[in-house]
Structures are given as structure tokens and as C-alpha cells.
User: Fold Peptidase M12A domain-containing protein from Chryseobacterium antibioticum.
Amino acid sequence: MNKKSNNLFQKILTKRTVFISFIIAATLASCNKNNEEMMTEAHTTTLHAESIKKGQLEGQTITYERKDGMNFFQGDIVLSDKQLVGDNSKGGASFSRWPGGKIYYTVASNMGSINANKITSAVNEYNTKTNTQWIPRTNQTNYVEFIFGSSSGSDGWAHIGFQGGRQNISLDQYISVGSVIHEMGHTVGLYHEHARKDRDQYVSIQWNNIQDGQAYNFNMYNSGTDIGPFNINSVMMYWPNSYSKNGQPTIKRANNTNFTYNRTGFTTGDINTINTMYP
Ligand SMILES: [Zn+2]
Assistant:
């Protein structure tokens, strides 16, 4: 996007969420796919300082946002209350993997055919390229429901890993197939690439460009297991302008050059990571 639209976008973002539909209108009118992605994975949510909390996730103190009765980590990952109190009843794991790599799913009846088609495309990607199998639910107890978050954007999120019972992936009407794949990645158990322990060898976080109060989204997640090499093209990578307050990048390569985000689909590295988790 150009500088002009950045400035406009930024001004609008400082307003309350009641203007969210205006944001979308401005976004769609003036911007490219990048902005669309920014909205759909909920990485530009308006900050409510009173809802920023600290909790324990696998022994690490993390910062998250409490919103709508849910715990949002790194913007679009939803942690259960049980995960946050460090419950050890599941062997100390903050999430479990899906038994046998089988993930049963349903699609909310109000999803709409456009998003339903995107889900089908994303499911096909998982089923043909990874060892996870996404299977329409019949009567299984443990499953994912794709829900329609809103028609106004900023509602792409997912529960992380296998939760037990019903869990959700929320999509809004502007989400891309690549972002559906991203949210399904959280369901499979993936966190974000930029939060890896080794990320500072590959990327440089531009702290001065991050919106006030959002820096915690760029903290490393040390308790996770880094699988395979760092992959800046990962479908699980934040995009370069995530949470930018001034239109300037918040993440660059370690050599201070810009990178281009990928939301077209899996990279080989993403597939290898998932297949290491689900051999
Ligand atoms: Zn995400």
C-alpha cells in the first residue's frame, strides 16, 4: 500500500471499533491484498489496555488479551483457561495433537458459500499435502467448527491444538484461502513463525514502529518446540506490517531489508513441520 493510504488507515485505526465497518470500506477501496490480510487474521485489533493480562503457558509467563470471554495470544491464537493456568493433567502440554492426525470439522450454517468454498480449498491442501486429515464430522465428540466471525473483518482466529470437545476456527468474509490455511495451522498446533526462539538470527523486530501496547505480540514463545529451520515465507509468519503504527515495517530481515509475506498457501517448510508433528 502507498504512504497516503497508510496514513489514512492509521488515523482510522485510532478510532473506536464502532468505526470498524468504515475501516473495511476504506481498506477495500484503497488498498491491496496486504491490508485485507491484516484485517482478517485479527492482527490490528484495537487495544483495550484493561484487558491485557499475564498468564502461565507451559511454564512461561506470557501476555495475552482477554476479549469476548476468550484469551487471545499473539493476536489470533485462542488459549483455553485450562491452558493458561498451567494445568498438568494432560502431561504438562499446553495443547495436545489430534489423535491419529484426524481432525473432524463442521461448517456453521451461516458461513456463506464463498467462505465455504475457501474452507474446501484449504481442507484439500491439508488432506493432499500433510499427514493431517480433515474429515466432515458425523457424531464425533471432539471436533472443530468453522464459525462466521463477522462481516466486518478482524475476526480470523482459532483455538490452538487439540482441545477436546468442540473448538472453533473463526473466519470473516474477507479471509483468503491462505489465511484459512493459517488459522487451521493453529488448530493443528502451530504458533507463529516470528515467535521462534531463534528468530533474531533471521529477523529484526522494529519495536519503534509497533502500535503502543502491542509489543507483547512480538515476544518469543520459548516454551514451544521449534521444528525445522526458520522459514520467513511460512504461512504462519506475521506479515511485515503487523501492528504497525506508522505504516513502516514492524518486522524486517536480520540484515534490515524488507521481506514479502506469504499467504498463498503452504511452503515446503510448513508441510515438513506439520508432518514432523504428525508422522
Ligand atoms: Zn495466526
